[in-house]
What does this fold into?
Amino acid sequence: RAATCRGKLQSKRSKLNMEINKELMLRNGAENLYRASSDNKTKENVSLELRFVNSNLQLLKEQLAELNSSVELYQNSEEVVMPMIALGLKETKELEMRDNFMEFIESHYHDDGGNYEDHVAELMDLRQAMRTPTRDSH
It folds into this structure.
């Protein structure tokens, strides 16, 4: 039972994280539109939309914190629920640093950066894996 409850918890977390990511993308788009707009009416509408998106984002983060603070789903029986400290999500941005690493290797070590392309690609893959961890049964 604990394994299936753990899976349900991970599934709920995954759905909440996807919704949070969607809201973050909406917020980024709205902020870009606000900065690009020169029309006051459009800015007013975008500002209203930004408040709505930020409100939704706050609700989703609270739901995720509530989900993270409960270990009830891990219990095998109807025992006391122990609250846990909820930690917020840390956002990281997509970075493309391959060229920068190659230039750094060439300028500091006077070696062809292309010789280290596989290693830099592995480093970038590891960073991407850290940014978007997979949910598994372990």
Remarks:
- The chain has a mean pLDDT of 80.
- The helical segments are 2-36, 40-68, 98-109, 117-131.
